[in-house]
Design goal:
mainly alpha; single chain
């Protein structure tokens, strides 16, 4: 169904029928419930804490022996935060936490090249997010600090981190 047809259909409903349909959606689809729960009681700090805990568990597990270190777990939370419409600073905080956790993890392990490429992609996304929302100044020290830490750690492709950092500083 197109948006246009949906709009036409919704205009034919009275207020009671519309409320009934929204309640049905709320009860049937967990995504709708999550959205409305967030809209009426955002609790961004709680969401951030939960996401940070899951990301940390991915790299430093308490229940199992080996870390999975999947970027997809953090990326899932980042997408979820975007869908909900979380404040840009909260999302930037999550992105920073993900990268800093990966940096701590890498110090203890010998990681494959795909790990470093993935972290560079996350770093670029973080930088683009900061610039897009005009909050680079607020995160400048952490952003620069991460590029410096990568250079000190000797990551493959560390020049790309530094170049991207310098590029954002000059814009």
């Amino acid at each position: 169904m197109s948006k246009r047809k949906l709009k036409k259909y919704l205009q034919t409903l009275d207020a009671a029928a519309l409320r009934e349909q929204l309640m049905d959606l709320y009860n049937r689809f967990p995504e709708v419930k999550t959205y409305y729960d967030f809209v009426f009681d955002p609790q961004e700090d709680k969401l951030l804490e939960e996401a940070a805990g899951r990301i940390s568990e991915e790299y430093f597990p308490r229940r199992r022996k080996r870390a999975k270190a999947r970027r997809s777990v953090a990326h899932k939370y980042i997408r979820h935060f975007r869908t909900l419409g979380v404040a840009p600073t909260v999302l930037a905080e999550l992105m920073a936490f993900n990268l800093e956790t990966a940096l701590r993890y890498e110090k203890q392990r010998n990681c494959p090249d795909a790990f470093y490429r993935s972290m560079y992609k996350s770093y670029r996304e973080w930088g683009q997010h900061l610039v897009h929302h005009g909050i680079l100044e607020e995160f400048r020290d952490r952003f620069n600090g991460f590029a410096t830490a990568v250079a000190v750690a000797g990551w493959p492709g560390r020049e790309a981190f530094t170049d991207f950092c310098e590029q954002l500083q000059s814009d």
